[in-house]
Amino acid sequence: MQTRVLIDLVKQFDRLYSRAKLALNCLDFADLEHYALKLLTDEDSPDDKLLPSETALALRQRYKYIFVDEYQDINSVQQRILEALSPGGNILEVGDVKQSIYAFRGAQPDIFLEQLKLARRGGLASLDAENAPGCLRVDLNVNFRSSKGILDFVNRIFSR
Asked: Would you tell me how many other CB atoms lie within 10 Å of the CB of residue 65?
């Protein structure tokens, strides 16, 4: 019973929030992500494989490389946007899972961990992985900002 009430309340909030955004002629960050994804993917794409739109294909031609900093804070919509923009093998992802702080807005550090696994195996997660030249993982293991004691403590916590 309480779950049903909560679900109904969230649905009502979503309707009211959507109406308010429409009345104010504004979008929130999640809207921007979803509209970007819609613009960059073919609407006839099957659920299991995104197909890039003509816009995404044009952007692929225009930009040779994609650089993503703070990759540990990416979410699934943002990852799909990258996949639409990249033929594979041209994305530099920089991040540290230990520094992921945006779970409240949908960050999914597991996406980064999966990319690390793929890099270890020499594979890629892209729309066209079979045509990608491969990838390289570079670990930056030296830290000049913190003392050894702090680093050891943080590494011990995250190794659990």
From this structure: 9
Model confidence, pTM: 0.78
Structure confidence by residue, pLDDT tens digits, 52-62 = 999 999 999 99
Closest listed residue to residue 115, CA positions, set 130, 135, 133: 135
Cα–Cα distances in angstroms (integers) from residue 32 to residues 39, 54, 77, in the given order: 10, 19, 10
CA-based angle 89:71:92, to the nearest 5? 25
Q: Quick one: residue 153, left, alpha or beta (phi over 0 = left, psi -120 to 50 = alpha)?
A: alpha
What residues does 41 pair with on adjacent strands? 52
Rounded distance between C-alpha atoms, residue 151 and residue 148, angstroms = 5
| 15 sits in which H/E element | helix 2-24
Contact 105, 142 (CB under 8 A): no
Look-up of token digits 């809207």:
31
Rounded to whole angstroms, how far apart are CA atoms 149 and 157?
12
Find the mean pLDDT for residues 38-67: 92
Residue in the block written with tokens 């590494």: 155
User: Comparing C-alpha atoms, which of 94, 92, 79, 93 is closest to residue 126?
Assistant: 79
In whole angstroms, what separates CA 5 from the centre of its chain?
32
- What single-letter amino acid sits at 108? Q
